[in-house]
Amino acid sequence: xxxxQKNATFRExxxxxxSRFLVIKILxxxxxxxxxxxxxxxxxxxxxxxxxxxxxxMSDHDRESLLREAQRASALNHPNxxxxxxxxxxxxxxxxxxxxxxxxSLRQKTSAGQTVSLDEFFDIGEQCAEGLAAAHExxxxxxxxxxxxxxxxxxxxxKILDFGVARKFTLxxxxxxxxxxxxxxxxxxxxxxxxxxxxxMQRPYDGRADIFALGxxxxxxxxxxxxxxxxxxxxxxxxxxxxxxKRISEVNPKVGTQLSNLVYNMLAKDPxxxxxxxxxxxxxxxxxxxxxxxxxxxAAEGQRVSLWGPRTGWMVAAIVxxxxxxxxxxxxxxxxxxxxxxxxxxxxxxxxxASQTLAVLPFDAVIDDPKMTAFxxxxxxxxxxxxxxxxxxxxVQVVSGEEIRKKNVVGIEQxxxxxxxxxxxxxxxxxxxxxxxxxxxxxNTKTSKAVKAEQLDAPxxxxxxxxxxxxxxxxxxxRIKLTxxxxxxxxxxxxxxxxxxxxYTQARGYLEDPGNPSNADSAVILxxxxxxxxxxxxxxxxxxxxxxxxxxxxxKDKKFIALARGACQKAVAAGNAGASGHVCLGVLExxxxxxxxxxxxxxxxxxxxxxxxxxxxxxASAYExxxxxxxxxxxxxxxxxxxxxxxxxxxLLGGFYIRQGQFDPAVEMFKKVVELTPESFRGxxxxxxTYLYQTKYQEAIKSLQQSLAxxxxxxxxxxxxxxxxxxxxxxxxxxxxxxxVRLNDKDYVTWGNLGEALYLAEKRDKARAAxxxxxxxxxxxxxxxxxxxxxxxxxADYSAMIGDRAKAIQYLDDALQYSKxxxxxxxxxxxxxxxxxxxxxxxxxxxxxLQAGYSVQMMKDxxxxxxxxxxxxxxxxxxxxx
Length: 882
Known about the structure:
This protein has 882 residues and is of the alpha+beta class. 53% of the residues lie in helices and 10% in strands. The strands form four sheets. The protein has a six-stranded antiparallel beta sheet, with helices on one face. The protein starts with 15 loop residues before the first strand and ends with a helix.
């Protein structure tokens, strides 16, 4: 036994605790507290005593939590768990009295990259799993499994330490809200490199979180290195959330496939793919050690199932979704779908030199380097934003990054077909030690030949120079001589700290790729790191608001609205975020239905940056939702005036006119899109769709065929089929709809359109199969949004077509309720009752639809009403409106 040190107590090592424990020496310290060796003067034994770290004040909640958890852990009695003897209070502090373990920690044994033999691994691994199994049977979670908390006694016994910070299964600390990296890191007692994804993301967790942490320990024992640890806290969290480590067999060939698969199952991102219990893990460890096969493995190595479900778009996508005609034209059976974002009157472009259109192509992932991939994505986004600023004073237009992503454009030819781009910029990065090799090329989209290409090197720690060299090089390729003001704008990054900008750029890269919802989680982590580095970085605060809003859109969890609002407000308060903070707030207000507040925020944004497209688009959308069409129109016209030689503004204004039922000016806008981008399918597609509204079917067929000659899309085929349908060419329409379905068999509308054409072409069995497919897909959509009036009335339509009257009437009643009896739904009601053979109600609904403003020409052109043509009441309805 150690002799007591007369000048060393718990508080400066000079006193006893509660007149019972005499402190001998400090054993260690961590984030949750300090541990000392002491003598129990009453029971005459050595103990370990833990208290909260003295440098931090202990709140009442901390006291209650530590006391509750330590008392729970004191109930454990297992040879592989260090016992909790008592919990005492002294001098206003809580102390946990524990079994004092002699020996070495697993951390010491595996230091400096050392591995353990397979025999040692099984000895240690089985005992660790047995200790966890015993705790989990009592519903006690350790929450901080790591090599430091696993002690090896001289006799070979494993003792798991620190169950004094155990947590009850599935309990989430309701007193904490994750709003910063600090709260994320310490809201759970664990160590980030060993924490499971669900713990990191503040989701409910159970004993499988301990299994994940033990899997990290097992990997470290077998490979001599941590599977996720990096020098960066944020990057470590990113790897835990998104990456699988290298296969154990590649790192240590001595480890067999069965054991390798076992560890990989422990490390699955989705807890459902891990071992169901520590008890099952014990059984499989013993089977493998004996040469048998494991019984409880869920998925073999390499067969990963993602933890997170599909992620929605980010902030700018949310703005555009408010304005663009993406779902389709308002035609009922069949219903045509616009092929492109018809989302543009009398606005004339300014005269001047012929404008060039530049598309900045997406960044290609760097193999085995997710950090560089994220940085590259963010760099491309930043380059796009900065190069767009050139349009104010030079004849060049830059396709927005949102448009590139939305249309999945990845190559030069696609950029020409989608956007009529003359030039395309491609950037490649490769890390080599402390340097980044940068290659970029500006190519002619017609010839695919490089107009300018350059290779350069820059330090990893200097993202500013990488961006500056590329922007200057691209300006040179465009034969643009930058003004002093333009050079100043290009040099502005919102921060002078390159590390903060590096974090920001990586975060922006995650938000540039909205395909994976967990990217918003990574962005939050990185942006919080950027703000930790530079607390006055207003642009990062605005981007953080974007990330939180993205999380709300994907989860519908309202807590993210408050977090988004807080970040946006901090961006505005910082005074250096320009328009971005107000755009951030404007999108949030639009998204939550506060349209007057959205108008105010977007007005602030355009005052600060009169060239900000997103601010004008958001403002126009808010005006539309406030039923202020004159103000919305003038705002869209300002978008056109900002870039009069670029197609986007005309496309937006055309979409607005369609929504207002002003088809003639819409046609003029889409003709302008065709004029500016004659090699893009988009203008022809939207022009053809507008002709459908005007019932100019031959013109529609011509424009849609021109679009298809450039690029075939499912939606354009669907619109073409609708044009043939309305000219009573039902067999031809069915053939066209079949082509649409081949390109996209997930769209219920196209299946319904196909069913209608086949039905009228007297192919009833095939029609029924198509309707059934439409209903199958539509049913899944109703699970997501059971109040979607468009989907409900389409489901009513299809149900009527297969003779299911009960379902048809049920869906129709719901559609009428949620659509508030708009003219389109009233017309649908007429079609449905007519299909059910109930002419009286059908005529009543037709009268209501016409009174609500439904087009009499569209009604006359509907083949579904052919059976009523000679009905006197129908003829009277037509006459009254002509």
